Amino acid sequence: MIVLSSAGVQAQTLKGSVTDAATGKPLNMVTIVNVTTEQSTSTDELGIYSIPAKSGDVISFSYIGYNTIQRIATPGIELNIMLTTLSVQLKEFIIHPDYTPFQKDSVEIATLYSKELNVQRIKPHVGINNEGIGASGLIGSAVQKMSRSYKKSKKFKEAFLKDEEQKYIDTKYRPELVTAITGFTGDTLALFMNTYPMEYAFARSASELELRMWIRDNYKEYLHKRTE
């Protein structure tokens, strides 16, 4: 009876490794979520992981800069995963038929303001010519740094990138998703989302399940603070 019980416990644990598909190197801190039970863990420095799971559970593997994938668990058999890097980055404007409305809008805006976004500061250069040591760009650089047009261009770039990041966050941190999890609507919904803003890096890397878990955790904290 003891032997059978021990074997049963072992069968409920899924083990394996996660590596980079291109280099074969182990990936540390890969987020692994049992979608069925909502339990999670991460890989160690050798890319090794272990997570409670039973046969048929859906397991999600996600890592910043890599494509998220899901696999079906078969405890007792190692599940080794190779993650591939993302092929499309935020700052690349490549026309693609499967772009989302957000991506298409970003491409159009970037094209429209390409002149403003590509203004670059003149860099001073010192070299040797027929007349000896010469310098170029020294005065231009100093003047440009102080010029209104340069400052406006720099502020425009910063505002543009910040706006693009927020628009991307809005595609993930959606009011309807928050309402479905918390039940909040109207002013209460707006207050909750303003109290718990989402970071851009998290919005880019998190899976749908991780987004839901993040909202639910903040919801619990929000309720706890209200009862204090």
How would you describe what is shown here?
With 228 residues, the protein is α+β, with helices and mostly antiparallel strands. It folds into three domains: 2-83, Immunoglobulin-like, CATH 2.60.40.1120; 101-168; 173-227, no CATH class. The chain is 45% helix and 19% strand. The chain is built from nine helices and nine strands. It has helices at 2-10, 101-112, 114-117, 138-146, 148-172, 175-182, 186-195, 200-205, 208-227, and strands spanning 13-20, 31-34, 39-42, 48-52, 58-62, 69-72, 81-83, 125-129, 132-136. The strands form three sheets. It has a four-stranded antiparallel sheet with strand order 3-2-5-6, with no helix packed on it. A three-stranded mixed sheet has the order 4-1-7, with no helix packed on it. Strands 8-9 form a two-stranded antiparallel sheet. A hairpin with a 2-residue loop joins strand 8 and strand 9. The longest helix has 25 residues, at 148-172. It is flat and about 60 Å long.
What is this structure's SSE topology?
Elements: H1 2-10, E1 13-20, E2 31-34, E3 39-42, E4 48-52, E5 58-62, E6 69-72, E7 81-83, H2 101-112, H3 114-117, E8 125-129, E9 132-136, H4 138-146, H5 148-172, H6 175-182, H7 186-195, H8 200-205, H9 208-227
Parallel strand pairs: 1-7
Antiparallel strand pairs: 1-4, 2-3, 2-5, 5-6, 8-9
Helix pairs in contact: 6-9
Counting DSSP E segments of at least 2 residues, the number of strands comes to 9
The count of domains is: 3
Termini separation = 49 Å
- Determine the structural class based on helices, strands and strand pairing: alpha+beta
Helix content: 40-55%
- What are the secondary-structure elements, in order, as H or E? HEEEEEEEHHEEHHHHHH
Whole-number mean pLDDT: 75
In CATH terms, the superfamily of the largest domain is Carboxypeptidase-like, regulatory domain
Q: What ranges have pLDDT less than 50 throughout 5 or more consecutive residues?
A: 1-11, 88-99, 122-126, 133-143
Number of helices: 9
How would a textbook summarize the main sheet? 4 strands, antiparallel
